[in-house]
Amino acid sequence: MTDKAKAAAAYRKLAEAAYELADLYTEAAGGAADDLPPLLREQPLPDVAQQHAETVLGRCPDHDLPWRGVAGGISKRTGNPYKAFWTCQVKECKKRPVKAWEDAHPAAAAA
Ligand SMILES: [Zn+2]
């Protein structure tokens, strides 16, 4: 079987499963909630927008790596204290997370 034929067969399987699921939904709509198979019971939907924002904002846009938390300390160069902060895992990278994300994820807790 070629890859294309395999893909077509897989697609058909998916389509059949979707029809079967739709049939189950239709049948189940008349029944009591306890009769539904577990997957069809009402489940709280994840907040997709929030998850998406989390995924996008929680990573360096240039390197696609999660931010790294750095503990606060004293600057060797200036001798001044600095607070914990988030930075890219790539040392030379100057990208930082947006403030809204930083506010929701205290760097001190991760460092
Ligand atoms: Zn980076």
How would you sum up this structure in a few lines?
With 111 residues, the chain is mostly helical. 42% of the residues lie in helices and 9% in strands.
Fold and architecture overview:
The structure is a single chain. This protein is mainly alpha-helical and 111 residues long. It has 2 domains: 38 residues; 63 residues, no CATH class. It has 4 helices and 4 strands, in the order H-H-E-E-E-E-H-H. A hairpin with a 6-residue loop joins strand 2 and strand 3. It binds zinc ion. The site of zinc ion (ZN) has 7 residues, from loops.
Shape: elongated
Trace the largest sheet across and list its strands: 1-4
Bound molecules: zinc ion
Q: Estimate nothing, just give the exact number of structural domains.
A: 2
Number of helices: 4
Coarse structural class: mainly alpha
| Main sheet overview | 2 strands, antiparallel
Q: What's the count of strands? A: 4
Helix-strand layout with pairing:
Elements: H1 3-29, H2 48-57, E1 68-70, E2 73-74, E3 81-82, E4 85-87, H3 99-104, H4 107-110
Antiparallel strand pairs: 1-4, 2-3
The structure holds zinc ion.
What attributes characterize this protein structure?
mainly alpha; binds zinc ion; 111 residues; two-stranded antiparallel ribbon; two-stranded antiparallel sheet; 2 domains
